[in-house]
Amino acid sequence: MRSLFSVLFLASINFLPFAAFSQNDQLADIRSAFDLFSGEPSDKNRRELLDILEAYEGPPTVATVNAHLIIMMHDAPSNKFRLIAESAGAAKQHLEPISETLPKQYWDARFMAAIARFNAYDEADSILEMAHVRGATHTMRSDEETWQDWAKTLHYRAYAWTEGMQASRTIKGATKTSIKNKVEDILSRYPNPTSQTEQDAADGLPWCEGEVKFRRKPRYPTPALSRGKFGSVVIGFGFDRDGKATNVEVLASVPLGTFDKETLKWARSGYFKPENKEQVGVTCRVDRPDIVQTLTFSLG
Predict the structure, then answer these.
(1) Which of the listed residues 15, 52, 185, 268 has the most CB atoms within 10 Å of its CB?
(2) Three-state SS for 300?
(3) For residue 43, which phi and psi values (nearest 5 degrees)?
(4) In this structure, are residues 224 and 259 in contact, taking their beta carbons and an 8 Å threshold?
(5) What distance in Å separates the CA atoms of residue 150 and residue 12, rounded to the nearest whole number?
(6) Does the CA dihedral 186-296-288-285 come out positive or negative?
(7) In the structure, what pLDDT confidence band is assigned to residue 24 with cuts at 50, 70 and 90?
């Protein structure tokens, strides 16, 4: 999962335009260090800018937010996870007071910090942090299905990472069962918005009782198995009027692309088996869009 870190973040971080602020010494130092780092992003200039930000005692400003984001963006491609955990963690803490004003930047930073700490330290707490990202971004989908693209994308990525992290064999500080229970508890604290699919069911025929079945069993790809890779794929699909899986797509995966092919084959073999075929189209229906499911690959 480590090699995919920068792919997930570089396109997602947005900077803010500079504006005029009161010229106190700390902000002037931050702007100066920011300009120096922007022109020459060396380790020395990175350290200096981060130290100045750490000493800053005022509220978040455009200058301080941009400074935190540029360090995060610099660190992401390096795959130096301890450094990424440091800069993303500092950005998360700095953005927390304005998380409602800048939700994208805040949740991007929190997401990045969770992955970096997991890769650097194998901490169980990083999984719980990821569960918060997953839950919070899901609540941003309103009843009218107005779900911003960044929040939707981040939600599915956090979904894949939450499940993929739990598949690791080297988690420190907790058992898999205790982590699973804590993740479920965290997710239960976030409201679950009513989807358009659920609204459609309320307005028309209800869905038939029955179960989802698959004609194909998922297979662990041999290259991934031989290298000891683990991960998770979030898959989206629906059922047509005959109950066959349709519109199958990968919504997010960790590691990117490793398990996608096998997951797609498995999902495309899916179908819905109603308890009573005679009721289909009369008192209930089997066609249903917008189903989301995960498939986790673990070595035990």
Answers:
(1) 52
(2) coil
(3) -60, -40
(4) yes
(5) 8
(6) negative
(7) confident
Residue with token string 């794929």: 233
How many CA atoms lie less than 13 Å away from 236 in the CB half-sphere? 13
The candidate with the shortest Cα–Cα distance to 250, out of 269, 234, 271, is 234
Average of per-residue pLDDT values in the chain: 88
Determine whether 201 is exposed, middle or buried from the number of CB atoms within 10 Å of its CB (0-12, 13-18, 19+).
middle
Verdict on whether the full-model pTM lies above 0.85: yes
Cα–Cα distance measured from residue 67 to residue 61, given in angstroms and rounded to the nearest whole number: 10
Distance CA 230, CA 213 (A): 24
**Tens of pLDDT, residues 116-161:** 999 999 889 999 999 999 999 999 987 556 799 999 999 999 999 9
Q: Could you tell me the two tokens for 73?
A: 């963006």
DSSP H or E stretch at residue 186: helix 176-188
d(CA 214, CA 235): 14
- pLDDT one-digit tens code per residue, 54-75: 999 899 999 999 999 999 999 9
Tokens of 35: 């300009």
3-state SS assignment for residue 71? helix
Is residue 53 within 8 Å of residue 88, measured between CB atoms?
A: no
